[in-house]
Design a protein that fits this description.
Mean pLDDT: 83
Structural class: alpha/beta
Strand order of the largest sheet: 1-2-4-6-8-10-12-14
Radius of gyration: 32 Å
Number of domains: 4
Largest sheet: 8 strands, mixed
Low-confidence stretches: 1-65
Number of helices: 5
Distance between the termini: 110 Å
Strand content: 25-35%
CATH class of the largest domain: Alpha Beta
């Protein structure tokens, strides 16, 4: 039986091969008929033969249906290498990926039309194609890889409005690239347009993450550094605040504060972030010596390296409670910052508080905080004294990682508590309620008619205002633990 199956199998493959050579039938008909015959044979001759036949069908389908001119070396839908010498190149359809270095260092190409169905352009695919001026992009393209068009000096225009990912240095040093449309882009990699000729960027509304130095050394970036106004924005990007003064309120809609946007600005004193900001770049506020207050919305999830490094005048910081990452040395040299509350689940980089200063410091940490032992790394001053430092948390059991780290380093550690748990206030009287560490928490009140609550002078303070006779309970939630204070409001003091 197996011998019969093998003979039928060989005859069928020979038939398919002869059809492809003579061109008497279309590819679509070949494939349809072949699949039907192969499936019928498999059904009639058993499962082993069916697997053999279907496997061979797939192989021959690739050979028969993927016929490309000899200058295009294609394997399984990926263009491995272009071997032609044409100035204007039309990449044939059927190619889904432009492979690594496929056109790299080609000095002949001036124009290339990419095929419909193309999804990905991989690393360095067009690297140093110095005479490439025009790229016709299909609507299907989604990803442009690392250095894909780096050093394409002649490239003047490229439509990226449907592309979702532009990776590291993808258009770096494209000195004649003037405008880009990033309407659909969700991810911009590090140095994506570094030293390019970019003068205008449109779109940007869908961007979820952005790498370092995306626009550095571009005309659009240099313009904002030298123009002389306060804040310069492009879409969702705050590119520069070099000339801002006093109290700064970042405009609503801004998602990203770019690297070094305010670096060495000695005139800003306070910064408030709207609910739209996701990311504060590397060194964004580095060496802003007059900066005293930072109010960060809970939308912020990422602080870059050295984001507030060297802000020696900084005294108050309200961190986002949704913060996921505090990068290396982001509060290094903030010697006058007396207290800070680290959000639960936040990853801490090395040396976050490098050269944080001496004196009285209150640091509130979640009990499961990681990498705490490296927060003060590289402090090699023999005279450095952490005697004024005190760490606060909700759990002082031996199973708590913070407890073990603190004991191992000889750090002072105390339990979080409210400074008052019971109060009697007269109508009209005010009282500031706070934690012993100055910790940030989520506050609530059981009866807002009896007791009003609002922000105090310090970000962590809660201002209580007695409004009506009765009893109200104020609760504060931090790291999953709830603390309460019962407030009894009585008549006016002179009654």
């Amino acid at each position: 039986m197996m011998k019969k199956e093998f003979v039928i199998f060989v005859l069928l493959l020979s038939f398919i091969f002869l059809q492809s050579c003579t061109g008497k039938a279309s590819k679509e008909m070949e494939n349809s008929e072949s699949v039907q015959i192969l499936q019928r044979i498999g059904t009639e001759t058993g499962s082993v033969a069916q697997q053999q036949v279907l496997s061979a069908q797939q192989v021959f389908s690739d050979v028969v249906t993927e016929e490309f001119p000899e200058e295009f070396v294609v394997v399984s839908g990926t263009l491995i290498r272009y071997q032609g010498s044409e100035k204007e190149v039309v990449v044939p359809e059927g190619i889904l990926t432009i492979g690594e270095n496929a056109f790299a260092n080609n000095k002949e190409i001036t124009c290339i039309q990419l095929p419909a169905g193309l999804k990905v352009i991989r690393k360095s695919a067009f690297f140093d194609c110095s005479n490439l001026k025009e790229v016709i992009v299909p609507d299907t393209l989604e990803i442009i890889g690392d250095c894909a068009f780096e050093r394409c000096d002649s490239l003047e225009d490229i439509d990226l409005h449907l592309v979702k990912v532009v990776r590291w240095a993808a258009f770096s040093r494209c000195k004649n690239l003037r405008t880009v449309d990033l309407t659909s882009v969700e991810e911009l990699g590090e140095e994506a347009f570094w030293a390019a000729g970019i003068q205008e960027i449109t779109g940007l509304e869908k961007i979820k993450s952005i790498g370092d130095r995306v626009l550095e050394n571009t005309p659009v970036f240099e313009k904002y550094l030298t123009d002389g106004a306060g804040l310069f924005v492009q879409g969702v990007l705050l590119i520069s605040g070099q000339h801002a003064k006093g109290t700064v309120e970042i405009p609503e809609g801004i998602k990203f504060i770019l690297d070094r946007a305010f670096v060495r600005n000695g005139k800003i004193t306070s910064v408030t972030f709207p609910d739209s900001v996701l990311q504060i770049g590397n060194g964004a506020f580095e060496s802003c010596g007059s900066l005293e207050r930072i109010f960060m919305s809970d939308s912020v999830v990422w602080l870059g390296e050295g984001a507030f490094n060297g802000c020696s005048g900084l005294r108050q910081v309200r961190l986002s409670q949704c913060l996921e990452n505090m990068s290396m040395r982001c509060f290094s040299g903030c010697c006058n910052l007396e207290d800070i509350t680290i959000p639960q689940g936040c990853t801490l980089g090395d040396g976050v508080f490098y050269y944080y200063g001496t004196g009285h410091k209150k640091l509130t940490f979640p009990p499961d905080a990681k990498n705490v032992g490296n927060l003060f790394e590289h402090i090699d001053d023999e005279n450095f004294d952490m005697g004024g430092y005190c760490f606060y948390t909700t759990d002082l059991s031996e199973s708590c990682s913070l407890v073990r780290i603190a004991k191992g380093n000889g750090w002072k550690l105390e339990a979080l508590r409210l400074e008052a748990t019971e109060l009697i206030l007269h109508i009209g009287e005010e009282y500031v309620l706070r934690f012993n560490s100055g910790a940030q928490a989520n506050w609530a009140v059981s009866d807002s008619k009896v007791l009003g609550i609002g922000a105090g002078e310090h970000f962590s303070d809660l201002m209580l205002t007695a409004q009506k006779e009765g009893v109200a309970v104020v609760t504060a939630t931090i790291y999953g633990e709830t603390y309460s204070c019962t407030v009894t409001v009585v008549g006016k003091e002179d009654d």
